[in-house]
């Protein structure tokens, strides 16, 4: 196969129930663009490996990793192996629209865009009903600052990596890695990629199908560390902006304070229901108020201090 135009990275762990649907959505793309799917499979106790190996297709590459990696680490393994000019991401329980590759890469080429973002469907795994994410807005092409603004507002452009494709060099530029077991790891990665992009295309069509599993959604909502995870994700983005030396990046993070606060309030509500104490919730909120400062976000002695040595990559 010639060099693919796009590589999809799909981490897999005990994914047998939905993996076939994900793979066949890739194989069913209605496009002339060359593509590859890289399945990074962590040690699984079900038929994940057998299902993956049953597809004898040169466009599918399988990486069997002996370690039980986090989703961030699994994606990094896939990124390192990817051959495509662009890189996209899939979760093994989701699937992509038949026109995903054609429309996303078509927009990238037409607009000379470094990244492209699409809308998505939310599929309720229990009822089988699907709905389109409503707050999308019209198609637009924005520069780096415009893309960062849309991402941090987290309304028309969400933080999910799976609704985006990136030129590969964006993912090899400096980045932010929020390590396991913390949640909300997608937003910092997407933020850094947008910072380094010259142009980003935002498409109106919904091309990604996100499967909202009742059990996993309930599990994430009931994690007492949910609010802390989001605080750390926000903090690393703010620190990256502070250290960039670009006042416009700092301004964009600071002007997103109210949107971040709205998200954190919901996270605190979920964490409190999961067992987070009122004292701990107040402490998290107190540290979040530091985001309003005009100077650099304090690091020493704060919850995010221990992450900084390992979170920022170049």
Task: Describe this protein's structure.
This protein is α/β, with parallel strands linked by helices. It has two domains: 6-213, Spore Coat Polysaccharide Biosynthesis Protein SpsA, Chain A (Alpha-Beta Complex), CATH 3.90.550; 222-313, no CATH class. It is built from 13 helices and twelve strands. It has helices at residues 19-27, 48-53, 71-81, 100-111, 144-153, 168-172, 186-196, 214-221, 226-244, 247-255, 257-273, 278-288, 308-311, and strands spanning 6-12, 35-41, 60-64, 86-89, 95-96, 115-124, 130-132, 140-143, 164-167, 175-176, 199-212, 312-313. The strands form two sheets. Strands 1, 2, 3, 4, 5, 6, 7, 8, 9 and 11 form a ten-stranded mixed sheet that branches. Strand 1, helix 1 (19-27) and strand 2 (35-41) form a beta-alpha-beta unit. Helix 7 (186-196) runs parallel beside helix 9 (226-244). The protein is globular and about 55 Å long. It starts with 5 loop residues before the first strand and ends with a strand. The model is unreliable at 214-219 (pLDDT under 50).
């Amino acid at each position: 196969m010639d060099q693919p135009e796009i590589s999809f990275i799909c981490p897999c762990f005990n994914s047998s129930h939905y993996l076939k649907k994900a793979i066949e959505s890739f194989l069913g793309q209605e496009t002339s663009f060359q593509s590859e799917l890289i399945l990074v499979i962590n040690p699984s106790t079900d038929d994940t490996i057998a299902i993956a190996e049953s597809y004898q297709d040169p466009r599918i590459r399988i990486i069997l990793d002996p370690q039980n990696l986090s989703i961030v680490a699994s994606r990094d393994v896939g990124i390192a192996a990817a051959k495509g000019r662009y890189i996209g991401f899939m979760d093994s329980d989701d699937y992509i629209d038949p026109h995903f590759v054609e429309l996303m890469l078509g927009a990238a080429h037409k607009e000379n865009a470094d990244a492209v973002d699409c809308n998505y469907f939310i599929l309720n795994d229990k009822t089988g009903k699907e709905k389109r994410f409503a707050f999308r807005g019209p198609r637009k092409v924005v520069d780096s600052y415009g893309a960062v603004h849309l991402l941090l507002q987290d309304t028309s452009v969400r933080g999910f990596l799976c609704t985006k494709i990136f030129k590969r060099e964006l993912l090899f530029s400096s980045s932010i890695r929020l390590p396991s077991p913390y949640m909300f790891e997608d937003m910092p990665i997407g933020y850094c990629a947008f910072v380094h992009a010259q142009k980003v295309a935002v498409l109106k069509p919904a091309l990604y199908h996100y499967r909202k599993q009742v059990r996993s959604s309930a599990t994430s909502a009931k994690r007492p560390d949910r609010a802390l995870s989001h605080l750390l994700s926000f903090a690393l983005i703010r620190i990256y902006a502070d250290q960039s030396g670009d006042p416009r990046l700092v301004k964009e993070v600071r002007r997103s304070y109210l949107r971040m606060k709205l998200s954190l309030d919901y996270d605190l509500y979920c964490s409190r229901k999961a067992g987070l104490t009122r004292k701990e919730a107040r402490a998290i909120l107190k540290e979040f108020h530091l985001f309003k400062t005009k100077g650099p976000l304090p690091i020493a002695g704060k919850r995010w201090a221990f992450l900084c040595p390992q979170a920022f990559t170049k």
